[in-house]
Amino acid sequence: MNLQVIYCNHQTSSLDVRERLAFTGDEQLAAAYSQLREVFPGSEAVVLSTCNRVELYTAQENDGAAPTQEELAGFLSSFHGVPLEDFLGDLLLQSGPDAVGHLFRVCSSVDSMVLGEPQIVSQVKQAYRLAEQNAACGPLTNALFQGAIRVSKRVRSETRLSEGRVSIASVAVGDFARGIFDRFDDKTVLVIGAGEMAEETLQYLKADGVREVLVVNRSLDRAEALAQKWGGRGYGMDQLGELLARADVVVAATGSDRPIVDLEMFTRARSGRGDRPVFVLDLGAPRDVDPAVAGVDENVFLYDVDDLQETCQRNRSQRSGEIEQALAIIDEESDRFMQDVYHRATGPIVKRLREQWSEVSRAELERLRGKLSHLHDDDMNQIEQSLSRIVNKLLHPPLEALKDEARDGTPHGLLEALRRLFHIRD
Amino acid sequence: MADIAIFCFLASYTVAFALELLRLKKPGRLGVLAGSVFLAAGFLAHTLFLWNKGRSAELPPLLSSSQDWILVLAWLVIGLYLFLVCCDRRLSIGVFLLPLVLVLVGASYLLEDRPNQLLEPDVRARNGWAMLHVSSLALGSAGVLSGIVLSLMYLLQHRRLRHKSSTSPGLRLPSLERLSRMNWWSVVISVPLLTVGMGTGLVLLLSGSAAPGELTLGDPVVIINGLSWLGLAGLFGWMLLRPRATGKQVAWRTLLACGLLLVTVVGLSVLTSSGRVSSRHASHSAQVSERGLIATGGHR
């Protein structure tokens, strides 16, 4: 069994790199899975792409089919058209138990920029669902991702990781927007995008009492649906420029692969509203707002996800106790998962051995039945049970040895020995 | 109680300031509590000191001497600080206000502390005008000090936000919106108060409270302070005419105008008290109006 993940995240690379490697939208992901199947035919694959990370999980039942780090990086490079040297140093590879532990940490939000944030679970679920839809999953990735979702539930229920400020929006508003504005009940908020992140941000801002909510989205229906839910108004993308001029707080969280708010549009919008401060939060990766927007005037305060690193890091250091508790659970679950995987690898041999020995005992029983025809059925049943017990008792020591060996990895040596000793064929 | 000296509250304020600085590095409730205790103790000693001085001079502290006038100004600033701390204990205002208070209290050592023994009966009758003169100047100056502090806080907060730096747990500042509003009000309130102070001073001068030939409009202190006041009045006018000016522009201009005024007031007070600048404000004439002017460092 092989399992590996190649990834870059908010800790290893800047947003400049991550946004170039990000997979945006279902269509691009479908194309990626199609290409992955061609390049790595023997591999299961799941792509996890969020604003904070781009991760490619691959798994193979057969040891020989594992792609190397260079091959996986080469895939990312050719798919996105990004030169390898631009990001190779930012990529990390983990395999086997380390890869399992990594996904468990990611899904439990221990690895997130904002510790305990709940969005990552749905992002992992979404990534897994899309991989399934594109027929990229297999038994190993199924077990891995289902395990990760289960572990994240356990971490959230047994630790206090999910308490406090647990969204990027809450951190950004708490640390920066509150430094600009005294109150929000006289402010207009413009949300660009109607996805989960946009809704999460709206939920937080609404709780702070924002006066007016404007939602802009490519799909007007989705914009109106979200706006209605939070007491605002929905608009199509064609009205973005006009709405920008009205907003005090702009939150951009779309899956667009290029900036939606460019310098020209923003400058035009800004010219109509004097020098009133505007807080712009860009949660997109790739970014939705051109970074040059920050230079339009000194009262434009633009932040992207990487700008929140410092605050999030302080938040982490204040909650080291909860992190330790969560990591202990993750370690325990990773060990258990790996044991299950290793144990599953011994399954075919164990099954074959049992079948082979049961076949021998059954053949002997039939022979005995022919020779000792005077015996009653009760007597034969007793003999049958005795033979079965003998088989089980004889099988017990080798199977226990196999189980013990499987705790530390797939017991290839022992499996080979059993195959040769008992002439087991696949 | 009668033995309370300037050093008592100067020391308390110094310790409170040191604790504020410590809070920047190591925020904690204990530091806040200890700082508040020292500040309250200093404020109590400060109040008692001014009370004693006023009683011994048989005049309100604002009129008794130039030293007492500047100590009243420091007292007002501390009172404002205590009020703001009570409103929001987490705000880091002390680190900005306390150095100014220490400068004022420290500068008071260099000012004359002679009581107004030359007060004449006919001038006592004018105490109301004199009191209005010095109190409006003191309150206006407190507003100027607030303007300096608020502008500094605004510029610091603006810089943090533009540089995307995280909030330091030990340095909590109000929002730009609030700082901008408070800054605007500090200027809008202090300029009229200073103008009233200047105007009443002029009334006292012209009504003959000052001895003829002793105090003129050509006095260097009158001229310099007048120019500083003009600078601040210019800022006031600009703010009223440019309501859409950015908070940063207002903060910079306030800092410059108020800073200039503060340096002028304190600097001239020290220089005239030490006799390095020849001015009628330096001498304790028989006129209460002039004593008022001396006490204010010559605001006219």
Secondary structure blueprint with pairings:
The complex is a heterodimer of chains A (426) and B (300).
Chain A: E1 2-9, H1 15-21, H2 25-39, E2 44-49, E3 53-60, H3 69-80, E4 92-95, H4 97-107, H5 119-133, H6 139-158, H7 168-180, E5 188-192, H8 196-207, E6 212-217, H9 220-229, E7 233-236, H10 240-244, E8 249-252, H11 263-271, E9 278-282, E10 300-304, H12 309-318, H13 320-371, H14 377-405, H15 412-421
Parallel strand pairs in A: 5-6, 5-8, 6-7, 8-9, 9-10
Antiparallel strand pairs in A: 1-3, 1-4, 2-3
Chain B: H1 6-25, H2 29-57, H3 61-64, H4 66-87, H5 94-108, H6 121-124, H7 127-162, H8 176-206, H9 220-241, H10 247-274, H11 288-295
Helix pairs in contact in B: 1-2, 1-5, 2-4, 4-5, 4-7, 4-11, 7-8, 7-10, 7-11, 8-9, 8-10, 9-10
Structure description:
The complex is a heterodimer of chains A (426) and B (300). By secondary structure, chain A is an alpha/beta fold. In chain A, 54% of the residues lie in helices and 13% in strands. Chain A has three domains: 2-165, Beta Polymerase, domain 2 (2-Layer Sandwich); 168-309, NAD(P)-binding Rossmann-like Domain (Rossmann fold, 3-Layer(aba) Sandwich); 344-421, no CATH class. The mean pLDDT of chain A is 88. Chain B is an all-alpha fold and 300 residues long. The longest helix of chain B is centred in the middle third of the chain and has 36 residues, at 127-162. Chain B is globular and about 60 Å long. The model of chain B is unreliable at 116-121 and 282-300 (pLDDT under 50). The chains are: A alpha/beta (426), B mainly alpha (300). The A-B interface holds A 175-176, 178-183, 274-275, 277, 298-299, 301, 303, 307, 310-311, 314 and B 157-158, 160-162, 164-167, 169, 173-178, 181, 244-248.
